[in-house]
Amino acid sequence: MKIISYLKDKENLKAGLLSVLKKAWGKTWLAVNQFIDKNLFQYAGALAFNTVLAIVPLVALFFAISRGFGYSGIIETTIRQLLSSQPDAANYIIQFANSYLSNARSSAIIGFGVLVMLYSVIGLINNIETVFNIIWNVKKTRSISRRVMSYLSMFFLVPVTIVIVSGIHLAVSRFIGSSSAFAFLAPLLQLLIQLIPIIVITLVFTMVYKHVPNTRVRFKHAIGPALLAAIFMELLQRAYVYGQVLLSSYNAIYGSLAALPLFMLWVQFSWYIVLFFALLTHTSQDYDYYSLCNGQEEFSYNDRTLLSAALLSLICRSFRDGKEHYTASMLKRETGIPSRLVTEMLNDLCAVKVLEERNDPDQKEPTYAPYEDIDNITVGKMLEKLNAHGKSYNRIDILNRINNQTKEHINRIWSTYISGMNEVKISDLWTVADDNTSADAQQKPNA
Questions:
Q1: CB-CB neighbours of 203 under 10 Å
Q2: Taking every pair of C-alpha atoms in the chain, what is the biggest distance, in angstroms?
Q3: Is the dihedral of CA 50, 53, 59, 62 positive or negative?
Q4: How far is residue 3 from each of residues 8, 9, 11, 13, 259, measured CA to CA in Å?
Q5: Mapped to the 3 state alphabet, what secondary structure does 252-321 carry?
Q6: What gap in Å lies between CA 316 and CA 354, rounded to an integer?
């Protein structure tokens, strides 16, 4: 019996491992396809160009903030470490940043210098957010007030975080070097010290993948791609160092100017890595959505309408019974509808003022409630509002060339359809379905 139990456990473990690997391969392959379909190669090139334009103002901004605290030397050391494979590029960036700050201090151009610096940096961050929203299929951008608060907090937190991490790294290194009690652990501790940069970069990518898109991204789906992105960035650094040996003739032709095109090439490949693993975060979180619709981007209009009615019915019924208000996660768990589709349909219902989003202090995410009295919400009203949502383009000439009698006939059919649907209250939708199901179950034995 023990042997049989062991073999069954071994088979279950093997089947589970194969299932995990198959799912991981499916997410990766989906990310590769979407990377091509969404044309992220072009976006990576655009972001690389924006990065090169904004990197000097960005470093100058970090220098200005860190000098206010007396820690500009730590920021400079960190930049040299990050660009250790490109010392010439690091020297140019630091030199230009210091020159930028010196010129910005002059009374003649201080206002213009600050504006150019902020425009370059904010433009880069805004473009990054736009590309991440494209990856996540998010159409609604953050409000201006939220953007200002996010950007200001980032400008101050990044230098402070660099100083704190560098201080911890230095303190640990000195403690290990001065303490003989840890001599036998020296190889392991040295390895851990070498892993600190990867750990820090992983945490940075995790925060970027989680907070930059204007949608809810779960930590468990962001941490894995962030770790892989950090590892690939480290591999890119090493490949760049080894590649410089092969490009010795390139350096001989361009001399010291060779640092700039090589740096631009490194930035572009870095953006390939960042965007691909951002896309992998998206496919990991929404894998159930793509599995359900066989990898396609959209469900049919008919399916979305029926599912929207089901969600609206659940929310109205919960509101009528005085139960806890639903969040998107709660609806996903109860209905089995993929998270992305639930969020999209809730956003549509809020946009047409059938639902309203509420910030409940007892919930970590928004809750949803009917926008008006549930007795007035019918399937017909929901359909009418969803179909009428958006702008009307009556100025398009071809619309005026449609036969008036045909348009009137279509409008009469539509009105009759909506009138019939108005007889079905949305709060009774699930109850009616339950009654029909029980009635069918009772008839089967008699048959």
A1: 16
A2: 95
A3: negative
A4: 9, 10, 12, 15, 64
A5: HHHHHHHHHHHHHHHHHHHHHHHHHHHHHHHHHHCHHHHHHCCCCCCCCHHHHHHHHHHHHHHHHHHHHC
A6: 10
pLDDT digits 0-9 by tens, 179-232 = 555 555 666 666 776 777 788 888 889 988 998 888 888 888 999 999 999 999
- CB 282, CB 225: distance < 8 Å: no
d(CA 202, CA 66): 23
48-to-86, 121, 123, 129 alpha-carbon distances in Å: 16, 13, 13, 14
Query: Which pTM was predicted?
Result: 0.68
- The number of residues making up the chain comes to 447
Q: Provide the 3-class DSSP secondary structure of residue 236.
A: helix
Return the HEC string of 75-116.
HHHHHHHHCCCCHHHHHHHHHHHHHHHHHHHCCCCHHHHHHH
Of 53, 49, 63, nearest in space to 116 by CA: 53
The amino acid at residue 243 is: G
Q: Are 43 and 124 in contact (CB under 8 A)?
A: no
pLDDT tens profile 272-323: 999 999 999 998 888 877 766 654 556 677 888 888 888 888 888 888 888 8
Secondary-structure breakdown of the chain: helix, strand, coil percentages, each rounded to the nearest 5: 80, 5, 15
Residue ranges of domains in the chain, CATH in brackets = 23-289 (no CATH), 301-390+399-439 (1.10.10.10)
CA atoms within 13 A of residue 352's CA, in its CB half-sphere: 20
DSSP helix/strand/coil, 390 = coil
Q: What is the DSSP letter of 423?
A: T
The two three-digit tokens of residue 287, written as one number: 């894998």
In whole angstroms, how far apart are CA 358 and each of 126, 139, 328, 338, 347? 27, 20, 12, 21, 12
Radius of gyration of the chain (CA): 29
63, 327 in Cβ contact below 8 A?
A: no
